[in-house]
């Protein structure tokens, strides 16, 4: 297959300017939401925090990371659309410290003193899951007043999982480092208490199960912050602190030294030399139709994301080696490299998945597991095909075949939802319920049980049939209001900001950043060995 910047063989020319304009508008909205998350508790509380001589949470992260290295923030829009600040009062993500990829979790004390709300909890749990699956050390930059008490019913019971995760990480030889910059009280005291390494900042860190007022109420004892839980006390008397830092910069320096002494090494495959993509990633802005019912060729996306063959190639090498290109053509699958790392790709070519596509996918997933190769799923699917012909042809068992293969595959999976992701197609293409190592969405993405018009239409058909069975006249005009309401609700709830706010992805990203984001993910994945499945259970054939 010959590919040029002008287009792809057997593919219609893209519609340029309207698609680009629509995507740029969505990206501008995305940037605005990210700015809200970065603003933390707002200017008033930022100034108050800085007036105390303290660094902001994002400044602490920046100083912790190796100079010039990226930070892959995860779930920055969690809490969007809720009564809580966007971001959940913490910052999570993967960054490189002394050459070691680490999961970093930083409380943002400008948001209610860093108190944890239900979305903070979701975000921290996801961070722990990413660290566990990819074998990453964790660095907690701690300054929190504990739980947001008005929401304690949503925090207290599930919150204990965070402490369990810390101890299990230690047992797996995935160390946790806690740097305490301020309050770490009540349940929050267990974060340093259960970390492998603890650094406390002199005259700032306060770590205790109960502060002086509660101690007075519980026991009648009069005490002060420093005697009860100050950094010097814990460093000299209780032994709960391993290192005493003179200030925040010193604490960050000491955290970097701890990481430098971890004797850490990657166990996964090393990347090979690579070329930048053959097609300009900027062209991804022209790819997604404004109406997701219109199909687009995913090879356009693939060749703007994966490594290119480079100039002067005379060996007939291709950036993307497609597998079974003439069979099950609604699903495009094949092999490529991304930032020098081998991957298998499954991308929806024309939305709908039929029996041929499902069987092709299952075989391809088995092959990837046979050769220990991670898989990338690129979504634009309306789901599995329906109708008498397809049911008689076995679409259920063939869809089950594909979902079985996805479910039991043990190589790392990465998922990017580019366009539509409806119905069981979301499952077969490794949606969130199937535990991808990382899942990102484009601003153009939509996910739901089905499209808004289809769902509302189904409801109308059911209501009409119900009325006819009762011998009643169906009020089509009256039902129109219901249809409009349902369509609006489903449309809103299928949009990427809404789903990201619920924590159903690891972030909404600019399509042009896809290659970089996936490259960072693949590098983190390579911290551990990659081993494919040997047993897929029973396939219905």
TrEMBL record:
What Pfam families does the entry give? Carboxyl_trans
Gene3D superfamilies for the chain: 2-enoyl-CoA Hydratase, Chain A, domain 1 (3.90.226.10)
- Any idea where the CoA carboxyltransferase C-terminal domain is? 280-532
Superkingdom as given in the UniProt entry:
Bacteria
Q: Which InterPro entries match?
A: AcCoA_carboxyl_beta, ClpP/crotonase-like_dom_sf, COA_CT_C, COA_CT_N, MCCB/AccD1-like
- Positions of the CoA carboxyltransferase N-terminal domain: 23-274
Cite the PANTHER family for this sequence.
ACETYL, PROPIONYL, PYRUVATE, AND GLUTACONYL CARBOXYLASE-RELATED, METHYLCROTONOYL-COA CARBOXYLASE
Q: What is this protein called?
A: Acetyl-CoA carboxylase carboxyltransferase subunit
Q: Which organism is it from?
A: Nocardioides luteus
């Amino acid at each position: 297959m010959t590919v040029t910047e002008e287009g792809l063989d057997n593919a219609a020319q893209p519609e340029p300017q309207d698609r680009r304009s629509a995507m740029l508008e969505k990206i501008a909205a995305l940037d605005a939401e990210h700015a809200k998350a970065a603003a933390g508790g707002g200017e008033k509380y930022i100034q108050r925090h800085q007036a105390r001589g303290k660094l902001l949470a994002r400044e602490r992260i920046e100083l912790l990371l190796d100079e010039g290295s990226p930070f892959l923030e995860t779930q920055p829009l969690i809490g969007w659309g809720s009564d809580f600040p966007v971001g959940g009062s913490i910052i999570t993500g993967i960054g490189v410290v002394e050459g070691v990829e680490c999961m970093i979790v930083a409380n943002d004390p400008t948001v209610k003193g860093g108190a944890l709300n239900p979305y903070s909890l979701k975000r921290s749990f996801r961070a722990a899951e990413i660290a566990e699956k990819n074998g990453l050390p964790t660095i907690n930059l701690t300054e929190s007043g504990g739980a947001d008490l008005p929401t304690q019913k949503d925090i207290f019971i599930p919150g204990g999982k965070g402490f369990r995760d810390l101890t299990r990480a230690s047992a797996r030889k995935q160390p946790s480092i806690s740097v305490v910059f301020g309050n770490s009280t009540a349940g929050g005291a267990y974060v340093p208490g259960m970390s492998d390494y603890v650094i406390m900042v002199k005259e700032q860190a306060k770590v205790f199960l109960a502060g002086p007022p509660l101690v007075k109420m519980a026991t009648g004892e009069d005490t002060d912050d420093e005697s009860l839980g100050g950094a010097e006390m814990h460093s000299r008397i209780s032994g709960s602190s391993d290192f005493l830092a003179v200030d925040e910069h010193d604490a960050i320096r000491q955290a970097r030294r701890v990481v430098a002494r971890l004797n850490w090494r990657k166990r996964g495959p090393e990347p090979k030399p690579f070329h930048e993509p053959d097609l300009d990633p900027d062209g991804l802005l022209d790819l997604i139709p404004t109406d997701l019912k219109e199909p687009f060729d995913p090879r356009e996306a693939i060749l703007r994301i994966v490594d290119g063959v480079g100039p002067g190639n005379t060996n007939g090498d291709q950036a993307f080696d497609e597998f079974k290109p003439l069979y099950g053509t609604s699903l495009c699958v094949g092999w490529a490299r991304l930032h020098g790392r081998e991957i298998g790709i499954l991308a929806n070519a024309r939305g709908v998945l039929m029996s041929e596509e499902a069987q092709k996918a299952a075989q391809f997933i088995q092959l990837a597991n046979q050769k220990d190769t991670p898989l990338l799923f690129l979504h634009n699917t309306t789901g599995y095909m329906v109708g008498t012909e397809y049911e008689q042809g076995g679409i259920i068992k063939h869809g089950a075949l594909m979902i079985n293969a996805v479910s039991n595959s043990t190589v790392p999976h990465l998922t990017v939802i580019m366009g539509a992701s409806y119905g069981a197609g979301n499952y077969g293409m490794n949606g969130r319920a199937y535990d991808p190592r990382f899942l990102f969405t484009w601003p153009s993405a939509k996910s739901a049980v089905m499209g808004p018009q289809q769902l509302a239409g189904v409801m109308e058909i059911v209501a009409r049939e119900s009325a006819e069975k009762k011998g009643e006249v169906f009020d089509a005009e009256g039902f129109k209001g219901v249809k409009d309401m349902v369509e609006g609700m489903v449309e809103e709830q299928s949009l990427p900001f809404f789903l990201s706010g619920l924590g159903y992805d690891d972030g909404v990203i600019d399509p042009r950043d896809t290659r970089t984001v996936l490259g960072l993910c693949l590098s983190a994945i390579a911290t551990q060995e990659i081993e494919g499945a040997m047993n897929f259970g029973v396939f219905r054939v």
